[in-house]
Amino acid sequence: APEPGSCVRVEREEDGALVRLRLDPPHRANPVFDAPLLRDLARALGDVERDPAVRGLIVCGREPLVFCYGADIDSISELESVEEATRIGRAGQEIFQRLHRLSRSGGGRVTTVAAVGGPVPGGACEVSLACDYIVLADDPRSRIGLPEVMLGILPGWGGCQRLPRRLGVPKALGAILTGKLYGARQAKKLGLVDRLAHPVYLDRIAADVATGRERLRRPERGYWTWLIDRNPAALAVIKSQARKGVMEQTKGHYPAPLRALEIAADAVRSPLQEGLQREAAALGQLALSPQSRALVRIFRTGEAVKRRAAGADGEKPARFTRAAVLGAGIMGGGIASLLAEKRIPTRLKDLAQHQLDEAQSAHEQRIAKKRKRRSLEAYQADAAIDRLELTREDLGFASCDFLIEAIAERLDVKRAVLGQFAEFVGPDTVIATNTSSLSVDAIADGLPHPERVIGMHFFNPVAKMPLVEVIRGAATSDAVVRRVVQLAIDLGKTPVVCADAPGFVVNRLLAPYLDEAMRLFESGSAPAELDRLALGFGLPMGPFTLLDEVGLDIGAHTVASLEAAFGERMAPSKVLEPLVAAGHLGKKSGRGIFLYGKGEDGDELNPALRRPASAPAVSSLSSEDRVDRMVLPMVNEAARILAEGVVESAAELDLATVYGMGFAPFRGGVLAYADARGLANVVERLRELAASPEVSKREGGRARFEPCEPLVELAALGGTFYG
Ligand code: NAD
Q1: 188 alpha carbon – ligand 1 mean position (Å)
Q2: Ligand 1: which of 358, 421, 436, 439 to mutate, most ligand atoms within 8 Å of CB?
Q3: 677-690 tens-digit pLDDT
Q4: How remote is the CA of residue 84 from the centroid of ligand 1, in Å?
Q5: Does residue 214 sit in the same domain as residue 344?
Q6: What pLDDT is recorded for position 314?
Q7: Distance in angstroms (rounded) separating the CA atoms of residues 35 and 72
Q8: Which of the residues 181, 302, 307, 481 has an alpha carbon 20 to 30 A from that of 238?
Q9: 474 and 512 housed in the same domain
């Protein structure tokens, strides 16, 4: 534990008229508001309160782009009661209130300035809001906002009170209910911060503001804001619109935004103290809610897997300096674009010029968009474009230390091409494959250095999907795994390390789920209805829409390889075969399960999709039965994946399901869902479904639903996946 007083440095300037409180906790590489930091902030504020000479105060971080990463999330997950959580909310509020009472805007004698930069989320934003002024470092790494709802809680250290007072209710709701983090220019435009400063001048400009050498004026908030704040009827309209928006987004699964909405919307019409009390009470309840527990666990697992990259000595593995990507299709183009954006010069090879042209223009468009949103500076955008080289030749690969292939999904082709390239690249080059269904070991077989061969399975669309499955082959070395895990992190992804088992994690779980939806269609359920049920359960997209997005051909290919590996429990329905044969492959071809294109918005069924003649016109199954039919096979398969040791822990498997398929985050993933439901109940339901006539009579039906041994055993012991 750090010495009392060591977490906040009190620096006096200008003959003691100006005081800087520098948050610099010695025990944290990434400072957070844990108990020692809060204690020392309170102590430092005590110094200022007792010193009548102080006229200006600056709260800042150890460096311009390192302030504080918000509240300590580990301690949120350790809270044991609503009362304890409420108390912590009140304690933080009270410290920030002392800062407020010193401030001019709180009636005090000191001009207070938050001089912040880098990530400024949650509690870090709230302490800033308690100051008279916020000066933010003008840098692409600066991101400020109140993301608490993403963790199932609300801004409980005054954020729900101070942001509406600063911005007016509508804009504050926009920020709080989405949990969005704003870049520097956006934050300035929104009025969340008062001034931007180049990081080099942050300290100096903050001093000018705190001493009154520079005067900042808040922009007028405008007539409408003024009116809404005072007019109960207008406020009621705003609230009901916001509530509707939240319900649309969350389907009512997440309590936090609804509570935040009530409290933040009423903030401007009630005294601060009252609002703070309601805020802390709500924080207490939400922090103990199962939704928050699930979201916090996913977040923490994500952080934990990222720490894995470091070696035993805590050192980060060496960055790759030059990358080669083979194949400029959907995946290869996306991967190359990301590598180039993230500062790795990348050479992209394809046989077809038009594929290269498309990849180049997609890269340019994506970077231009980032530039427009100001998440990249002009020079950075130019450099990102320059870092991507395209070629149809096999020359110029000798200096690449990382190579990834994303060519056709055929073992013979991948082996031939990698065999050839292994000769072109250097002796230490890491060779990765983006295969989704082939064995990494089979691909590595025959290559000169199998210890340097690894799977790096990105998801489509590459730029958006947060997960990367890192596939460790039998021969892959630890050092190579760590380097590729670090690469995934540098690319902004969350890596989950998997063994080289068919379908890895995500596709292996998706296959039975998607196929079960087809089976339900065969027996009389409407695709749109099944899609709705999946959304209601908490999936981001229904199974039919998802298949159209992925491509029916790609889905069929993946399932075929899973059936080859696992046998009849993966045996696919035949309803999609005629569509694939006719080239109706989903969104990319304008028709798949639904119709897309002029006038269609994907609501209308493709008439080429036919039920078997024997199928009933309408299903007699309840909604609950149908959801169980789609979801429980995933639980069953997940139990197998975990028992086989494909991933190291239940938490990592769940992380993959949440980040790789968007499995209901508020449920915490497939296994957490099963735990919450009770494994005995899961086993019983699986057995009932296995015995139901619709399932038991078809090929592979029983095999899919009969609960697997590890699941049965765990349930019999009264255990849970999370132990
Ligand atoms: P794609 O058909 O869009 O792209 C493949 C590209 O490789 C084409 O541009 C083709 O011209 C090029 N190519 C073929 N042979 C080549 C060679 N010898 N040298 C250089 N280029 C060559 O395919 P895709 O969807 O991008 O998939 C590529 C790989 O990624 C496959 O292994 C696939 O299984 C995997 N994958 C695909 C998805 C997905 O959703 N599409 C997701 C994850 C992984």
Answers
A1: 42
A2: 436
A3: 999 999 999 999 99
A4: 53
A5: no
A6: 79
A7: 9
A8: 181
A9: no
